[in-house]
């Protein structure tokens, strides 16, 4: 009886590891293939059977992309848009999350559900209405417009995430500070924000990652190549330059995703811890 139970546990564990391996391969293979293509020569791109590990690796493809295209400008544009989006999102989301976590008011639950509903709306669905709206206002081709829409997209998730983190902090800390004469604003800025610093940092990272990967919004709202972020810039490289071929485009794609992967790999422990802390209570 005990032997059959142990055998069942081993089979279950083996099945889980097999599922983990399949899921990991499913997500990592596209990245591996893009990196492989970025290091190939033109004949290797079309070789049959395919060359999995090109040798010698053509690191010159990266040098060509960095020196002969506008990818540097696109990266700077993305960095600026993401930085402004994160700052505005954190300011608004922190205040909203604090209110939802610490105050009881009429229609609080419907308001939270409304925030959740907005999170479920895909940018693809609202792309055409957004274009018409900002075109009518004469606000197309502007960083301010793109940043405003980015904030609207990222804000619901960030608010829910920070609310969950605020909920993990005992209300007794607020009450003790108020008894000592602190105002609500002082409780937030001097007591809660320092305690929530890891959660706020994680929220900033997640907001940056979500903003960095946006494509539809800048694609429809920006016309000038000088303003393109990296996501739209990659498409522009493919469509407008005769010198860009598949290996150069792959190298540009690797450069585009490298900052996001680096941030996640370096800070994944803090991201997982903060998400877990918020999920347990929230």
Write up what this structure looks like:
The chain has 282 residues and is mainly alpha-helical. It is 78% helix and 0% strand. The chain is built from 13 helices and no strands.
Key terms:
282 residues; mainly alpha; single chain
Strand content: under 5%
Tell me the helix content. over 70%
Order of helices and strands: HHHHHHHHHHHHH
State the end-to-end CA separation. Answer: 41 Å
Low-confidence regions? none
Shape category: globular
User: What's the helix count?
Assistant: 13
Largest sheet: none
Count of DSSP strands:
0
Radius of gyration computed on alpha carbons: 24 Å
Question: How would you summarize what this structure contains?
Answer:
The chain is mainly alpha-helical.
Blueprint of the fold:
Blueprint: H1 2-38, H2 42-45, H3 60-68, H4 71-102, H5 108-120, H6 127-137, H7 143-167, H8 171-179, H9 184-195, H10 197-212, H11 216-221, H12 230-240, H13 246-281
